[in-house]
Design goal:
The chain is α/β, with parallel strands linked by helices. It is built from seven helices and twelve strands. Helix 5 packs across helix 6. The structure holds cytidine-5'-triphosphate and the ligand C[C@](O)(CO)[C@H](O)COP(=O)(O)O.
Length: 248
């Protein structure tokens, strides 16, 4: 539940400390360029585009915080947007936890947004924030699936895997970011869910483990995660389409 005595300020925590192994060799994923601008800067701008976001906390690769701070100093953000840079951890869960620990006292609502989703439109960001402000402790943007999904018994890479079942597709959603939270709920989730192996794959799942309700709002196709090389091609195409639509 939100503390009504606190002023209502929203911050975005951007975990950007991953290596991007699935993208292939090169710089840490968040620092790779899309149309000449680092992916992280696109992601920060996507959060700052919302008038409700007054602080962005970037969680940088552990040894790259000064470089990331310089990068942010070089790229203009709206005057209303402050930013902080903190070093990240070994898993996404730890990186988000380190970002949360850096939040100032007066923040009531938190977005957690992957640096790897640089092109999320501002309308999606605002829809998540609005649902949190309307009282949902945890909100995720998500889309219906185009593929049928099978549950399998995982085997060695390349080996046939026995199918265990086929979940009803109409009940499934592919979850994106930014995920939005009442701050106290998210902090409680991070304090109570231990990092196990590679850690939790999303923050809303940790809130589910608390037993708190999580709701879905419509996601957006352009909020896809840049994970594999083909995603870079798609991201460049989306940016080219935006430039064409903006008349540049
Ligand atoms: N230790 C980690 C691992 C991931 N992330 C961030 O979490 C987001 C989602 O993770 P993912 O897309 O899986 O990025 P990587 O972990 O970099 O990718 P890969 O698994 O291919 O290495 C990314 O913005 C990534 O930078 C992070 O901050 N700290
Ligand atoms: C948080 C997330 O983007 C929601 O789909 C996703 O779970 C991140 O997964 P990753 O394997 O850490 O990229």
């Amino acid at each position: 539940m939100s503390d009504q005595s606190r002023p209502y300020r929203t911050a975005a925590v951007i975990p950007a400390a991953g290596r991007g192994v699935r993208l292939g060799p090169g710089a840490p994923k968040a620092l790779r360029a899309l149309s000449g601008t680092p992916m992280l800067i696109h992601a920060v701008r996507a959060m700052a585009a919302s008038r409700s976001v007054s602080l962005v906390v970037v969680v940088a690769p552990a040894d790259g915080a000064p470089e990331v701070k310089n990068l942010l100093d070089e790229h203009a953000l709206p005057e209303r947007t402050d930013y902080l840079v903190v070093p990240g951890g070994d898993t996404r869960q730890e990186s988000v936890g380190l970002g949360l620990a850096a939040l100032p006292e007066d923040i009531s609502a938190v977005l957690v947004h992957d640096a790897a989703r640089p092109l999320v439109p501002v309308d999606t960001v605002d829809a998540v924030i609005e649902a949190v402000r309307d009282g949902a402790p945890a909100v995720v943007p998500a889309l219906p699936l185009a593929d049928t999904v099978k549950e399998v018994e995982p085997g060695a890479p390349g080996d046939p895997e026995p199918v265990l079942g086929t979940p009803v597709r109409a009940r499934l959603r592919a979850v994106q970011t930014p995920q939005g939270f009442d701050r106290d709920t998210l902090v409680r989730a991070h304090e109570s869910v231990a990092v196990d192996g590679d850690g939790a794959t999303d923050d809303a799942g940790m809130v589910e483990q608390l037993g708190a309700p999580v709701v879905v709002v419509p996601g957006h196709e352009e909020a896809f995660k840049v994970t594999r090389p083909l995603d870079l091609v798609l991201a460049e195409a989306v940016l080219a389409r935006r430039r064409a639509n903006d008349g540049f």
